[in-house]
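FORM 7B: Structural annotation worksheet

SECTION A. Query
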Amino acid sequence: MFDHRDLEAAAADGVIDRDALGRLKAYLDRRGDPGAPADPENLRFLANFNDVFISIGIVLLALGLTAASGLTFAGTGSALIILAPVLAFFWILLEYFAGRRRLLLPSMTLALGVTLIAMILSASLGSGIDGNISEDVFRRGLTVARDFGLWASLGAFAAGAAIYARFRLPFALFLMAVAAAIGIYTLAATQGRWGEIFGGTLSFLVGIITLFLAIGFDAKDPTRKSLASDNAFWLHFAAAPQIMLGLRGILTGGGFQPAGPAEAGVMLAALAFFSALSLALNRRALVAAALLSFWLALGVLVESAGGSEISTATWTLILLGGGIVLLGGGWSTARRLILAVLPRHGYLARIFPPEPA
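SECTION B. Predicted structure
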């Protein structure tokens, strides 16, 4: 069984040309292509257990190669000399597993490894501490920390962008979104805007911007059958935690402050809104990525109702788990209720796709 992503891969590999691909996809859609994914979040992380097997091997290989390179070039003390060979080898593996084999989980594992190595290299070289941990570094502590964070985010973003440009791997957009967020938070910290960071305002704004980028990809693919749908998924997954944690910080006055019953009630209302938005967008990723916020807000309300420590945890698990099961089981029905009050034509109809009968 194959789906539209396999057709995209065939076109990328030159098996069929783009014009033929368009005609074939239109033909399959008219026939009700049984190979097309019925769910927009059917990302096929695993073709089979071999993907997991390969990914485990990649992690072990990364640890071994890094250790071997470190022992070989230990005298240099330079991250560039130690990690550059590992980075080059991992890019070769990416060419094979992402470029030729199109194995998603191994490709994601390699992409994460390449991004982490690029982040370390960029941070160590850009901040001037590569092989040079001297007293001057400690005297310039805040400046070095700022440069380290900014160069780390720049390196990670560049690596994600290179992976996306070369392989069109949707997971790379998640890496880019996280890298950009780290850079923004680091830049804000160096300007003394700690209140915006820990108060949640900045996190909320970055999350909202990421959410709009995700919705932009959704609008490009109202049928949720192309790679644009996968791109949107990963941006939704990056946006939701930042939005929810930012909202919590705004309500409580700080990201680490405990929420009271009133704040928790507002958070649950906001979470209910984003659940409705998830239904309209047909994106479970928004709800899944916000589960920690659901847990915290629901726990506060249960505790305020007089629950002990054990009963609070118990009832929170029951309510949260039951709500997820009900929402997941009745997803299509709930979507139809939400879509009944939304426009069925125009740009919004592309963002909020219809639910099949």
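SECTION C. Observations
Confidence is low (pLDDT under 50) at residues 32-38. The two ends are 23 Å apart (CA to CA).

SECTION D. Sign-off
Analyst initials: ____
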